[in-house]
Design brief:
Shape of chain B: globular
Number of domains of chain C: 1
Largest interface: B-C, 52 and 42 residues
Structural class of chain B: mainly alpha
Mean pLDDT of chain C: 81
Low-confidence stretches of chain B: 317-323
CATH topology of chain C: MetI-like fold
Oligomer: heterotrimer
Distance between the termini of chain B: 15 Å
Strand content of chain B: under 5%
Number of strands of chain C: 0
Order of helices and strands of chain C: HHHHHHHHHH
Helix content of chain B: over 70%
Chains: A alpha/beta, B mainly alpha, C mainly alpha
Chain lengths: 329, 323, 270
């Protein structure tokens, strides 16, 4: 199966008192065409930055230190900014966290979509307008012919997010990145928006990278899951594998700490002791080792690479043996 | 929008009335006899003659009565008669108003042009060399008195290079070329006093907008930097700046008075100064009324302009009053 | 209440200018009124650092003494603005209600009058002297101080520590003196510096159009008027007073900005 997106050894750093420190450290993954990937992790794990790197929206003082990104087989980090701008919003697009502030407040929503359409293909204003109305209809906006001339402040969060999706689809995207796209919405709207993205992705054969800290959302939506911790990719597998059979101790601890109405209220909530390390204070060896219940001396000696274990990729030296012992399950 | 306008018009009228009263009262309450001052210390005047003059000027009547009669006359367009020259004040102002309008118009247009060039340049790379250079120039520009700038221009362009005459005025109807020639230096001088304020404010506004989420969306579409600057950042920065512009115009009017005087332009600013020299209170009051009204009217206009540019304001301002 | 005490160039310049001009009698090489101490319109030289004017008076001495007048007037005006403005704002901020409304509307009205115009009106009524000018300019500058003081007072009175103090029964007036005033003092200091700059600008402008200090006294504005009148004879005369005025205003403005910036950074760090 062809890969829409291949990321190899992506590293992003920020300045600190101790010089530049990595906030995304040597991350590699592949997104096959048409697949939906959920990238989960806590705040500060580097997931959003990875997304911005894919769109080349990383700005000073943050910088991409190394790695390669292949969009549809074409390496994009090496392109000039002018060349890449032709692809941005066109072959790869993004939708954002807060729909209420994601649009130009004094420009009509239709105009903002038309601007994008005309940017990516040489059509006349009237054709663009027609296309925009169609897009509005496909994202589920009622009465698109009149809504096209509304201003953002006249619309609700859910509708605005649909406009943002419409803008993202105004080119011919192969990859759609959703950066916490449903976090700012209420649960019902969240559900509707996710269903919409699902439908549109299937219709157009899009790959979707959904970035979220909400495990439930990730589980509901994705085919595969990638788990990020402290700037590193620690586990990468199918949704079933990850959720029923986590291989990495962090993933297991993360899943254990979930709360829903089925847990026993008499027992304390299982949280992970300690804090994720700050970028300027990363431990040597495995990033998670200071907090890992199964850590051994070799875990702090060297960084565990992403290796295959039980059908998915895990960055843990002890993954196989822990599985055998039944410790992680 | 309509309700908001009404409210603004009302509060503007109150401000106008209050400031006019202040002007009126200052002349009469502050120590110093206007009539005596007008005559000058050299003249020997009999007390009876003084009284007669005072009666003539209406200065012996109770304060409120004077105020009312002046205001009611003013509403009918009669601003009294100059104490010194006996010309009707309204006529004097009418003759000179076009000059001030032309000058103020040029100054506003030029300041806007300068600011619209300098502010985007500053935020291309915030904190960069160009930004800091423009920032320093702005600080200096704020601190140089307007007339100093004028003097520098005259030194360079009139005396040294002999390109432009330094004094005088020719009406447009007579000779456009000469009119413009004589207006260049005064206009640029005035613009240079207002521009630093505009640039500072516009820059701050644009910088804030530049970092907002919807600009990130615009970048995510793949738009070019210039398109983002002019179609997204600038229009959004104009809205808060427009309100500022109204105040800056008021500040500019102060400068216009001095500029008219030093460049020999027969506008209402120089009329005010002449009136102040001669202690001609009729003129001073009349000019004050016109200038203050113009200023308040201008701020009101800019507020309306704001409402036109920003669709949110039209709805929001009406709603504000419902709360 | 502590500032980061770091050496500030603008503060130094402010002190230097104030110090030098106020010690004019000590530093001045010639009598500023002394006619014919030198040939008329001598250019800058070692005997006359800034040259002489049309009556042979030494410009450097006139600048020193002129500076003394300008600076004194500016300081006096600033104090007037501070006192009136603070009282104005505080009364409004404490009383609230219709007193607040009236006081603030009056402030708006005063600010609606272009400054020079207002000064013109007052000067024409009262005349210009070393006494009247500071009062007029001070009055002019007080509304901005008043607004600032009012906002600061309102904010302070609403803050937790004040509410707590009031709850323990502290009288309002005492509270204002001991708590509120010291806390708004830094902002008033910023206003002081900015007002000083504006006062120098106003005095120079008024004197330049001949409605300020009258000859034979001279302030920097009057010297510039003189230079302007003699522009065809000498093109350097006007340069010196223009330079010192600009530097002074720039220094006061910069200093005020600097205090404001360090205040803001202090606030955001707490």
């Amino acid at each position: 199966m062809k890969n829409s997106l291949i990321v190899k050894n992506l590293s992003i750093s920020v300045p600190s008192a101790k010089g530049r420190v990595a906030v995304v450290d040597n991350v590699s993954f592949e997104i096959p065409a048409g697949k939906k990937i959920g990238m989960v992790g806590e705040s500060g794990s580097g997931k959003s930055l990875t997304a911005y790197a894919l769109m080349r929206l990383i700005k000073d003082p943050v910088s991409i230190d190394g790695g390669e990104i292949f969009l549809d087989g074409r390496e994009i980090l090496g392109l000039s900014s002018k060349e890449f701008r032709l692809l941005r919003g066109n072959e790869i697009s993004m939708i954002y966290q807060d729909p209420m502030s994601a649009l130009n407040p004094i420009m009509r929503v239709g105009q903002q979509i038309i601007e994008s359409i005309q940017l990516h293909s040489p059509v006349s204003k009237s054709v663009a307008r027609k296309t925009a109305i169609d897009l509005l209809a496909s994202v589920g906006i009622p009465e698109p012919e009149s809504r096209i001339d509304s201003y953002p402040f006249e619309m609700s969060g859910g509708m605005l997010q649909r406009i943002v999706i419409a803008i993202a689809l105004s080119g011919e995207p192969k990859v759609l990145i959703a950066d916490e796209a449903t976090t700012a919405l209420d649960v019902t709207t969240q559900d509707r928006v996710l269903t919409l993205i699902d439908k549109l992705a299937a219709e157009r054969g899009l790959s979707v990278l959904l970035i979220t800290h909400d495990l439930g959302v990730a589980a509901q939506f994705s085919d595969d899951i990638m788990v990020m911790y402290a700037g590193k990719l620690v586990e990468n597998g199918s949704v079933d594998q990850i959720f029923s059979n986590p291989a990495h101790p962090y993933t297991k601890a993360l899943l254990d700490s979930r709360c829903d109405y089925t847990i026993d209220v008499n027992k304390p909530i299982r949280s992970i002791a300690g804090q994720p390390p700050r970028p300027d204070n990363r431990p040597s060896g495995c990033v998670f080792s200071p907090r890992c219940a199964h850590a051994e001396p070799r875990c702090s000696a060297s960084v565990p690479p992403l290796t295959s274990s039980q059908g998915r990729l895990t960055a843990c030296f002890r993954a196989d043996e822990l599985f055998q012992v039944g410790a992680v399950n | 929008m309509g309700r908001y306008l009404l409210r603004r018009a009302l509060s503007s009228s109150i401000v106008l009335a209050t400031s006019l009263i202040l002007v009126f009262l200052s002349i009469r309450i502050l120590p110093g006899d206007p009539v005596l001052a007008r005559l000058g210390a050299a003249t020997k005047v009999t007390p009876e003659a003084l009284e007669a003059l005072r009666e003539e000027a209406g200065l012996d009547r109770p304060l409120l009565a004077q105020l009312f009669s002046w205001l009611s006359d003013a509403l009918r367009g009669d601003l009294g008669v100059s104490y010194i020259s006996q010309f009707p004040v309204t006529q004097l102002i009418g003759e000179r108003l076009p000059v001030t309008f032309e000058l103020t118009f040029f100054i506003i247009v030029l300041s806007c042009i300068f600011a619209l060039i300098l502010a985007p340049l500053s935020i291309l790379k915030p904190g960069g060399i160009l930004d800091r250079f423009i920032g320093t120039m702005t600080s200096i520009g704020l601190s140089i008195p307007g007339f100093v700038v004028g003097i520098i221009f005259i030194l360079i362009f009139s005396l040294t290079l002999q390109w432009l005459p330094s004094l005088g005025f020719v009406p447009i109807k007579e000779n456009i070329g000469q009119n413009l020639q004589l207006m260049i230096m005064p206009s640029i001088t005035g613009a240079l006093t207002a521009t630093p304020y505009l640039v500072r404010y516009l820059r701050a506004s644009m910088l804030e907008i530049k970092q907002s989420s919807f600009i990130r969306t615009a970048e995510g579409k793949g738009l070019s930097d210039s398109r983002i600057m002019f179609r997204h950042i600038l229009p959004n920065s104009l809205v808060p700046t427009l309100t500022m512009l109204g105040l800056i115009v008021g500040y500019t009017l102060s400068g216009v008075i001095i500029i008219e005087y030093m460049f020999g332009l027969p506008g209402i600013g120089s009329l005010a100064i002449e009136g102040a020299f001669k202690r001609d209170y009729a003129i001073i009051q009349g000019v004050s009324l016109v200038i203050i009204s113009l200023f308040i009217l201008t701020t009101l206009c800019f507020d309306i302009l704001c409402g036109l540019v920003d669709p949110r304001l039209r709805v929001a301002k009406d709603r504000q009053n419902e709360i | 209440m502590r500032f980061k005490k770091r050496f500030s160039i603008s503060g130094f310049i402010v002190l230097a200018i104030v110090g030098i001009t106020l010690s004019a009698p000590l530093l001045s090489p010639y009598d500023p009124y002394g006619i014919d101490v030198g040939e008329p319109f001598l250019g800058p030289s070692w005997t006359h650092l800034m040259g002489t004017d049309d009556l042979g008076r030494d410009l450097f001495s006139r600048i020193l003494y002129g500076g003394r007048i300008t600076v004194l007037i500016a300081i006096a005006a600033t104090i007037v603005a501070l006192v009136i403005g603070t009282l104005w704002g505080m009364v409004a901020g404490v009383q609230r209600g219709w007193v607040d409304e009236i006081l603030m509307r009056t402030a708006d009205a005063t600010m609606a009058i272009p400054q020079i115009l207002f000064a013109l009106v007052c000067v024409s009524a009262v005349g210009s002297s070393v006494i009247s000018l500071p009062i007029i300019v001070g009055l002019l500058l007080s509304p901005t101080t008043a607004r600032m003081a009012r906002t600061a007072v309102v904010v302070e009175l609403a803050s937790d520590y004040v509410v707590a103090a009031r709850a323990t029964g502290l009288k309002k007036s005492r509270l204002i003196m001991t708590e509120v005033l010291p806390n708004i003092a830094p902002q008033l200091l910023v206003q002081l510096s900015i007002n000083a700059a504006a006062a120098v600008m106003m005095e120079a402008s008024l004197s330049f159009i001949g409605l300020g200090i009258q000859p034979p006294d001279a302030s920097w504005g009057t010297l510039m008027l003189q230079g302007y009148g003699n522009l065809w004879n000498t093109n350097w005369y006007v340069f010196f007073p223009a330079l010192v005025v600009t530097v002074t205003i720039l220094a006061f403005n910069s200093y005020g900005e600097r205090i404001r910036v360090s205040l803001d950074s202090r606030k955001s760090s707490t």
